[in-house]
Every structure is written in structure tokens, then in C-alpha cells.
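LAB NOTEBOOK - FOLDING QUEUE
OPERATOR: T.R.
BATCH SIZE: 2
PURPOSE: Compare the predicted C-alpha cell outputs for two unrelated chains run back to back under identical settings.
PRIORITY: normal
REVIEWER: second-year student, initials M.K.

ITEM 1
FIELD SEQUENCE / FIELD STRUCTURE:
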Amino acid sequence: MKTRLSLIASACLLAAASSSFAAEVAPVMDSKSCDPPKYPKAALMNEETGTVGMGFLVGTDGKVVESKVEKSSGSKSLDKAALSALSQCKFKPGSKDGKAEQLWSKVDFVWKLE
């Protein structure tokens, strides 16, 4: 009898452990839902380029709740322009275990001169 109880207890612990590894799907940006960032005039004149890495907290409705620069392009004006423009984009909401949930999404934007 004691062995059987310990097996049941072990099975319950395994079920609890596996439920803590929820299937999470990050939000995805719909780049057609917003205007692309415009090159700031001063950055253009100074021929500034670079990649800005940003994080967007996306609500269950697909709208950006919070945004931040995670890795600078090296230019504050390029970082600000990218963050401001892309914060207006709609996202496909993220989910945990198939249920829409507020989650962070990472987006990189490359500034280059052509």
C-alpha cells in the first residue's frame, strides 16, 4: 500500500511539473499595420546607420502596452524614431497554452542608407 501511494504522489508531482512548462507563443508584428520609421533629418545628414533592438509588451488585443530600446543603434535619434513608429503597429497577440496573453516581443530595425 505504501508503494502505491508514493507512485500516485510521484505522478501528481510529474503532472504539476509538466504544467509549469507552458507552451508560449510570442506576439508577431504586422508590419503592414503601421508606417515604417522615417529617417530623422540630422541622422540622415550625419549618415548615421545601425540596428536598434526593441522590446514591445503586447496586450491581448494586439496593441503595444509598453516599449523599450534593448540594444541601441548608437544613435539616440534613430532609436527614438524606430521605437516611436513601431509602437504604433498592431501585433498578433501572443499566447500561453493556446490562450491569448500579454507578452513581450523582440523586434530589430535596421537603419541603412541606400
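ITEM 2
FIELD SEQUENCE / FIELD STRUCTURE:
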Amino acid sequence: MPARSRKAWAVRVVGATGYIGSRVLTVLLGAGHSVTALVRDPSRVRGEGARLVTGNMRDRGLVRGLAADAEAVIATATPGDATSAEADRDFVGAVLDGLRPGATFVRTGGIWVHGEGDALTEETPLSPPALVAWRAEIDSRALAAPGIRSLLVEPGIVYGHGTGIPALVFGQERVGDPAALQLIGPGTQHWTTVHVDDLAELYLATLTAGAAGDRFLAVGGFNPTVAELGEAAARRLGLDGRVVAEDPAGTVARLGGFGEALLLDQQASGEKARRVLGWKPSRPSLLETFASGEYDPA
């Protein structure tokens, strides 16, 4: 395992008020790094210690300027809508134009681009659903950028603190008599998962110990089925664990491309990040957080 750099980095974080980025910001500051955060709303920044710049990832001139005087840029932001591909393409172009030779660029991808598989790794051929098909070209372009240390973190389904995609499981419709919780899809599909606080620590490890061109699957090694998650939620909701499968066509009709992605059957261990970076995810599994009541409706 390569030695982790002990230097204090001058880091620019984009997306520092988001679900992932806010935790990344906290971890970076806690590790003693100098952080400038590009944010749309400074009032939403949690904690103190970062220099704040008001703006957004679509401002090419601002992004280029921030990158130009940075040792590293960490990007966790995405619009999360139909503009995501164009926004990310423009943003990556601006960062690459601005970064000096030898600087570092850590981007956020996603495990969905690897398609289905029961033992996914960073080398698994890409087979993305339509929702994220645009990522492949941008990821490749950034990782191959000459003269900089470019890396990619690919999270599974992120959970923790009662929010993220897993909260949808509790919001599913109740059907039948006695009532049962409708699953997202048939329930046989596995979801790769990672706790948001473990994920934030992986960004720090990637910054300080990753090599140019590295991509890391950010998964904790727990791959529950949607049925297991639904049953755990149904117990918390007083339904005695009763669940009902949903026809995949119905899932796609209801949720569109997002539903197609949630139907992927994915399992992964995240072994590379542990071996190469010394990453040690330690938070409770998603099933454990469900059982603890963390996701119970208010």
C-alpha cells in the first residue's frame, strides 16, 4: 500500500453543500487541509473553516480560475436532471483547462455505469443504463487527461443519516389486505451500498494516496436485495415484514430511467480501495440502519 501523503493540500471542493460533498468538506477540514468551496448558497455550508466562493459549476470562467490556483479539485456536484451530461462536460472541460501540471482532480462517478454483475470491479466492462450512459465518455476523458493526477470515485447507493435513495423504500405504496409494502421492482435485485461517512473518508484517501488514472468502486461490501430492504422497512412500518413485488415494467413506467437503474442487480466488494488506499469502511450496514430506526418516517 502506498504511503499516504501527510502534506496539507490546497483543495477546491465543488458540491460542498450536497449529501456527499458536505461530508467530504468536514473530513478534509478535520484532516487539516485548506479548503475553498464553490457553493450556490453559503448559508447551507455546515461547519466552519472553509473559504467560500459563491457560484455554480456551470460558470466556466469561475471554475477555471478556482482550478488554476489549486493543488487539487474534488467534484461531487451534479444537477441530477436532464442537464447533467452537459453540465458535467462543461465543468470537466473548465477544470482541465485551469489545472496546472501536476495538480490533482478527483471526480465522482457511479457504479451504475458498470451494469449488472455479481462481482463487479473497476475493470468490469461498462454497460450503463440510459440514465448514466453519458458518464462513460466524460470519465474516460478526465482519467486520460495529460499532465495531471486524475482519479474517479464510483459510489454505490449512498445511505446514512436517514436520507439518500434508500429512503424511497419507506415511501413505497402499501397494497393489499392485510397491507404490504410494495417493493421497487421484483426485489431479487441486489444494491451495492456505501455509508456516506465511509464514502467521505474514501475521497480523502483517494486524494492522499491514489495514483493517476485510478478509479475506485466506493462500496462497503454489503449488497442487500431490495426484498431484504423492503422487509426491514415493512417491519419498522408495522407491516410485519410483508412485501409485494412490483413488475419491472411498472417500475420503469413509474420512475422512468431512474427506475431502470434501480432494477440493476449489482454486487461488489470494493476490495481495490481497501488494498490500494487502506480504506476501512466501518459504519453500520444499510440493513442495520433500517433496523435501528434511522429511516423511520417522522
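REVIEWER COMMENT (ITEM 2): The radius of gyration is 19 Å.
FOLLOW-UP: none requested
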